[in-house]
């Protein structure tokens, strides 16, 4: 145990570190604080334990899979309906809505976020009583335990009434039984609120006024996690992985925004919003999903984290502490309360429960992106040639907005890209692809056929008066397709057909940017909240799913282009729950500083935890010019993140690896090549995630849920179950763990090892089998048939296991059973290759070229392989210093069953 004096010193040190921040670049005046948001102030001002709601007992209706009842607001006499449903896989759903709203409230349509209507199941299996949900007789989730339920009903604005008319009933309200004056009191109360809080009917931020013709519409509810000190999720925020208390800050905000050079370690909103939170302790993991597309704020309080310094010191000396509990408070500007409670009890159970609701990431096409942005055809040709000259593999060349004709998407600048098809074909001849940016804003130019077509078909977002919404973005005056309308999404899909997108080919993929949406002259650089969408919904109702629907329509467009045969690749900046079904995500406009490299790990862990698995951060930062050491470390870190891309502002220095000093170039080249060797493992991890849900890049507690030392750890992570990665994110730092070498370290403790610039600390778990491809190729597209090397690391019992997935790497045939899934098991000195899934049938040319086994304690007398009834001896080598056994050229096909025995 630490001494009190040392403990106090550490607390002071932590405080000092927290005060040291990087320079602030974002203009925070452009974005609201809670105090500038009317509904946020109202919900935050609520007093716990003073709920205005009570159950109308005669309305309670208990069914086998649900409980339905009504709630009465005793202040306004407005009634709400509440439904509690039991769902499959130990999940519950709570929906609260107005009984008789004056207009329909927005609910996200099935298929936009939820993959289907959730399947119901008996409530008894949920072990639910009162407001608590239990796991093995322990409460793990409490709903409305603090009484912070608040549901602002739609209403008609009442004009001030003469004193003699106050007894008239307020429209839409009913008197309480037995109270002759009940009609007067709600009307008086509502009128008083309207006078005291003018933002109920309209709200002004800077020079923008937001009209609210039906008054306030926010909803809120508190959710507590008894027994849990740590909660995670609710991306996107540039913050720690374990979420912090908001006692002394604004709540965490979810409102998709274009934030220029975002600030670190605060709860400000960023480009995407996934309203999913998970709580984890050594016994249980649980989660909640707040199914609401409006702006949302989340307050977090902890009876552990919220203690002041002296209370912590007192607890230490008393050797006493409270049972931890984390209380959260969720409130959204509009919509309904639609809350899913996922009861685990283990991390993988919660991952699966959420995946059943919103889907998983499809197996991506065989693409590893590493190159950056190019400016014209000559630039594309030079980058392609130089990467080959320096033997650096890459998969994708990206074209930003400058490739278009005057920022008109689906077009080409004829001077820069006069032969776009030839250019794409030349790049594709080496197994590579190209990606062009396609943003959702359309230049308002009647000679621009995409805009003219959308305008003529009335497919565009409207302003509050019903006219075409006009905003400013890269092309100047712009309009936006209304992606909340399914017919508009079908129209957008058609624009990717080769006959529509002239100059494109099937080897051209897509990148959606500015889809929050970004509106340069709009409030908070986005749409006005009273802008009108499909069915008259206001942007306040649907804001956070707009970018998600843009990416969904784009992905469907690429699928349509290939007649539903080829997997699409679509990168997006804005996202919501369910965006994992559509492609990849990146963390936006980061800065080329060590602090932004460091924060990329917790940001990507948070995204992966809530299903956004194909995620990465721009290598080197979008802004500024990192020095060679930082850029080298960033390439190394990016090489072990799920999505891997170098991308920078047009005014920064070029970032291609071959432009680095020679020593740095070689180190970066080795890191990129290492990523390519792990391609079979990456692919297998993505397949398992597609089948079962869960992260690709995961926190250590997901695999080791009882190890409390991992609960706040976000400077290292696991890729799948078997690769531990500790990127270097601080200048000149010595770190724990080692790279994949023959050196052996015992687990259960932290070990310091030297990490010179050429070393990236990666460690393979003892007890695992990882397939790799060791041929150096120009791109992943040329690796499809390359042979496999099995890297086997034995545990202390001399055992190991792993798997490998393979298919044709580009079509949807794997969803029809055209795939191969193999299981490798080493036990009792025998390695077995067997079929892991009999539902998959696929013939591949891939074969096993070499097997390396670490942890073999003595040299065997021989090595034999048995295939069917035939057995033969294999050549091998053994290094007693590293306990490495190398089996040479077993020569078997990947799909071939065999047993290799150490004699």
UniProtKB/TrEMBL annotation:
Q: Where is the composition biased (Basic and acidic residues)?
A: 167-195
Q: Hey, what's the signal peptide range on this chain? A: 1-25
The DUF5110 domain is annotated at 787-844
Q: Which UniProt keywords apply?
A: Endoplasmic reticulum, Glycoprotein, Glycosidase, Hydrolase, Signal
Q: Which compartments does it reside in? A: Endoplasmic reticulum
For this protein, the record's Pfam families field holds:
DUF5110 (PF17137), Gal_mutarotas_2 (PF13802), Glyco_hydro_31_2nd (PF01055), Glyco_hydro_31_3rd (PF21365)
Query: What molecular function terms (GO) are annotated for this protein?
Result: alpha-glucosidase activity; carbohydrate binding
- Main site of residence? endoplasmic reticulum
Q: Where is the Glycosyl hydrolase family 31 C-terminal domain?
A: 693-770
Family matches, as PANTHER family:
ALPHA-GLUCOSIDASE (PTHR22762), BCDNA.GH04962 (PTHR22762:SF54)
Membership in a protein family? Belongs to the glycosyl hydrolase 31 family.
Q: State the protein's name.
A: Glucosidase II subunit alpha
Q: Which organism is it from?
A: Mytilus edulis
